[in-house]
Amino acid sequence: MIGDLGFNTLVVLFGATALGIASGVVGTFMLLRRRALVSDALSHATLPGIAGAFLLGAWFGVEGRSLPLLLAGAAASGVLGVLAIQAITRWTRLPEDAAIGAVLSCFFGLGIVLLSVVQGLPTGGAAGIKTFIFGQTAAMRAAEAAGLGVLALLAALVVALLFKELKLVAFDEGFARVQGWPAGRIDLALMALVTLVTVVGLQTVGLILIIALLITPPAAARFWTDSLESMVGIAALIGGLSGGIGAWLSAKYEDMPAGAVIVLTATALFTLSLLFAPKRGLLAQTWRYRRLRGAIARGDVTLGEGTPWGA
Amino acid sequence: MLQRLRSLDFIPPKEAGVSPLLVKGLTVAYHRRPVLWDVSWTAPQQGLVAVVGPNGAGKSTFLKAVLGLVPPLAGTVEVFGRPLARQRRLVGYVPQRESVDWDFPVSALDVVAMGRYRMIGWGRRVSKAHRQAALHALDRVGMADFANRQIGQLSGGQQQRVFLARALAQEARLYFMDEPLAGVDAATERAVLDVLRDLDSQGRTVVCVHHDLQTVADVFDHVLMLNVKVVASGPTREVLTDANLRATYGHRASDAPLLP
């Protein structure tokens, strides 16, 4: 089957799989550190940066769209958004969710306004900007796919190196700080990884849906395991599968937006996990509950050390 | 080598009489509400200290401010004669059980091993020796059989003992515990009390936020009576008097006017 695919499709497949692996690995810690909403704000806050960078490029006479410039703009305004959230929660009494909501909509609104300015420009290339919102894999070049591969490796490397530190800060930040770990800097490393995945994934999945690719694979992985090590691995697997299958489907049926298909694939895997995972899945839980009810009705069980609620 | 020696935490000899913990003028406010006001206190050379006071008296905040988890408006903290930042290796901590998510995908042994992370250092894996030390700590609180259990599958008391074991794994000199006996079952209470007595006999200092006035005199040799300000401190027998209790619990200092 793979043999039938053209070189271009293989490139896209590889790139999307690598992106999925990277987001699964990074997303696991983001989810456990409860940074999912902040990351959503981060991805939405990239839009004004993208449009602004395009305008800046047009001003200085850069032809069409220069990808590095656009991604730099995306990263800059995304980070600015996160800093704004941190400043609001630190210096005011507003709760974090309010700060996230305010920053997300403000930055996204600004981005839409700038986008309409871009579209009014006589210079071409404005159409390409819209792909950042919903994503597009069809145009992926070999170099971009290789870049996504490097990203996946980098994410895996950083997480492997800082595994213990990331785990500690995610589980118990206070204890980490009492031991003298620089929790703020460890969080910063995690946010840098999230930013990297977001910005690099913008073109493929789009800024609205990239957060789904960061959250869904680890959330699905949690159903299968009680250990962080395997959760990272399973999330990488589910993320990679989502990227690969999604990109393949969108290549097979033209006009299917890749980002949406990738995210829907991830959601399908999530739903399967939610239902069928052996211990934490819904069916297993329902089955255990019914069996227990039956056993209690027959008087077969007594309360003792063996049960989790005994002891 | 020199570098290594310098980075070792410093414990002065007992004869020098340097207190394990010296707090000077510690003041903390949440927004405009004063929570701790000008708290100065010197911990005893060794033994078990109960921090008592009514709800909202700032007991937990006192621990957190001493440990640098809450930014103070004023005040300094010295551990064995040096700023806390340089003596972190000497400090062990048992936070309140509610402060973490127990559905986190780690086993009891994983959590206890976290007490060794500082010794292990950046980027290194938990070696077999450290794992063994963690297992030993779990054993000391009677939880060795549950080492591989995911922490969410433990009862509240067992979770409390896991936190205690993690602090033991730190092999610290000065311990801070936030209500380790609050709402625990009888087995856990026994385990906690055993550990406290052990630490005491090893010459450690343990500072415990404690809520149960009935048991203070049975367990703790020293008390720090706190209600935003220090009301009294010293050996339990001398300090836990009716007059001091009235002064600590009789009024709500947290109803004090807001700061400007």
UniProtKB/TrEMBL annotation, chain A:
Coiled-coil spans in chain: none
Annotated GO CC locations: ATP-binding cassette (ABC) transporter complex
TM annotation in the entry: 7-32, 44-62, 69-88, 100-121, 142-163, 188-216, 228-250, 256-277
Subcellular location as annotated: Cell membrane
Name listed for the protein in its UniProt record: Metal ABC transporter permease
Main location: membrane
Gene3D superfamilies: ABC transporter involved in vitamin B12 uptake, BtuC (1.10.3470.10)
Pfam families assigned: ABC-3
Listed GO biological process terms: cellular response to iron ion; response to zinc ion; transmembrane transport
Stated family: Belongs to the ABC-3 integral membrane protein family.
Keyword annotations from UniProtKB, A to Z: Cell membrane, Membrane, Transmembrane, Transmembrane helix, Transport
Bilayer disposition of the protein: Multi-pass membrane protein
UniProtKB/TrEMBL annotation, chain B:
Protein's UniProt keywords contain RNA-binding: no
GO molecular function: ATP binding; ATP hydrolysis activity
Keywords: ATP-binding, Ion transport, Nucleotide-binding, Transport, Zinc, Zinc transport
Name used for this protein in its record: ABC transporter ATP-binding protein
SMART domains: AAA
InterPro entries the UniProt entry points to: AAA+_ATPase, ABC_transporter-like_ATP-bd, ABC_transporter-like_CS, Metal_Ion_Import_ABC, P-loop_NTPase
Domain ABC transporter: 21-253
SUPFAM superfamilies: P-loop containing nucleoside triphosphate hydrolases
Family that this chain belongs to: Belongs to the ABC transporter superfamily.
GO biological process, one term: zinc ion transport
